[in-house]
Amino acid sequence: MAEAEFVFTEEQGQLRAAVRKFCAENFDEQSVRTLMESEPPFDPKVWARLGAELGVLGLSVPEADGGVGGTLVDQAVAVEELGASLACGPLFGTVYLTIPALVAASASEARDGLLADLVEGSRTAAFAVPDRAGSLGEVAVTVEGDALTGTVERVVDAGAADVLLVAANGADGVALYAVDASASGVARSPLATLDLTRPQATVELSAAQGLLVAGAGEADRVIEHALQVGSALLAVEQVGAGQHLLDLTVEYAKTRLQFGRPIGSFQAIKHKLADLLVDLEHARSTAYHAVWALTDGSDDPALAVSIAQATASAALARIAADTVQVHGGIGFTWEHQAHLYFKRATTDAALLGSAEEHRSRVAELVLDTAESDRGPRVADGTVA
Amino acid sequence: MSDSERIADLANTVVADHDPKSVPIPEFLGACYDAGLSWVHFPEGQGGLGVSRGLQAVADNILQGAGGPVPLGLNPMGYGMAAPTIREHAQGDDVKKQWLRPLATTEDLWCQLFSEPGAGSDLAGLATTAVPDGDEWVVNGQKVWTSLAHRARWGLLLARTNPDVPKHKGLTYFVIDMHGAGVETRPLRQMTGQAEFNEVYFTDARIPDKHRLGDIGNGWNVAMTTLMNERTALGGSASRRGAGTISEAVTLWASRPARQTPVLRDRLTQLWLRSEAQRLTSERSRASAGIGGPGPEGSIGKLVGAELNQHIYQFCMDFLGPEGILYHGYDSGGRIGERDWQGPIQQRFLRSRANTIEGGTSEVMRNILGERILGLPGDLRADSGMPWKEIPRG
User: What is the CATH number assigned to the segment(s) A221-367?
Assistant: First the structure.
């Protein structure tokens, strides 16, 4: 059970420190640069250690399913640190989306074995489910019997995945299948991406065999839950990356001298960084609120997740842009790390719904249902 | 019994013996003080129980849940600024008790005498003087933007006691009797047409030395206690989603469907989201730092709250269009009363212009966030190390 909202336990503090240490050893800037230009763009051995040794790939998976029975708050704490270092690996496809989908699905042979392997880090997965702003989108794949046919465009982490979780339209509606990525009838075309640390591939299925994970009766709920958890964890990742960038930029502003003084002593820089701090703290509050809402049901998860995504996507995009700006010329070079995070910020903002799309959803949920009773008084020119 | 259970017991007893719905407010708040529930982290006998500050919410939930008043609203400078400053810096328990109980009951209102016509953001440059005379101090000068000065019994005064040293080092902090001789309070009319604030003039006003808070020359550090608490009080936002200023804009929006446009809808959504993000940030700050005193984080709430207020009321005016440029009339600069806070949206719009100035301008707030939280270096100062009397003024 999670603590009261925004209260972190001592164990979560230790978890944070352990993940941070692991990232410092395995995902320092040079390692990230090497990995992102490798094929696949991560080290499967390091990924397996994240699962088997550190145990941070399925922290909220129940013990009965091979997890440690923690909460989504635990998972978020780990994701924040992994996001801060741009940890290379299929976090998005496996940890943010597929594992939460499997946890939400009913137990079955297909699900249980896969879930255990994903948590262990011995296999990875991608979530080949089209979304529109973080909700289930138009499903183009069809299923006949257990044979899936159709194309899913731009699936993050699909290129190196062992398993694809595919939404397919059947006679009874949309169902969710696990497809072995190396099976016959599965073709994956890797795509060049803006962010080299977050690869994509287009998946083409031609009568590929699928194992049913969630039938038409529960697939909607399972997919909805996975997309909400994924959106919340993505927001937390944005917080981690944002904190890293703010620390980096503040340090630079303290040490970079121009006109004989640190540039951070100029209000033009200082006030910009103060605004970034506010945006980051807002992102942190909304992201963890969404995590808690999904953990203890204290808030409508759809609204909480959209608030978090709208806030965190905008915050990281601004922090990353101003990181480049405050660093000046060096911040525009390939050599400096700013562009790695700027590209991640741009990518994260577009995944699972942009800030604007989530803002639209908030408007529907909050403004379009607002009532006009007890409105404020408007002076009408009559002298009181 | 845990501290939390003990506080709950005491609060339930106060409510049972002094039903806030039937007894006068000073009696109810006096009972809270005597039970140690005014500020639970204060010492026993001074309105507290000597327990963690974070437990205040346990008491407040019960006392206010039973219909008790929000004392910060009744005696804002008393509860928000004077009490913590008195607790930390007043000379001896007798003086503390003399001030704290009537403050807590709201029988004695308090005001803050810091800003001057020549010292706003650069508060440490202030020019009101206090000169020692036996075991008293003689005060001369002018303060401005003093809310409640006309109703206050006591004032928190920052005055210059040594003009020959750099500005921060020559200040001393006092409590002055607002009813004493040589203290004159005049209303100051503001852009809404009303007089919410005052100017206060001192002409040979006298203060006993035992009403000095902190050491001579240490007034700046004492004032920081007051200001940090002020910013926390100003930044504390509503804890219910959609409450506060944003609720006015949302209900106004819903009341005039014919004026709704997609562009305005998005603008209002952005304001709603920022209000919500700040509300959650206040909740998080309360949850994680309940034990600590006010810190620089309070500056986030103050900065965001002030700018949001302005943006929300500006939205309301733009949404209203031609309807918004009417007013309910400018009176002759009368005192603002409790009911004026229920004033029409146009008045609130005008009033919100002060939000980014009062209690520390937004520019100063950003300096505080940059320097105290992020640790960025301070700006160059033209008056650094200069004796106060040599600093150019104008």
Answer: 1.20.140.10
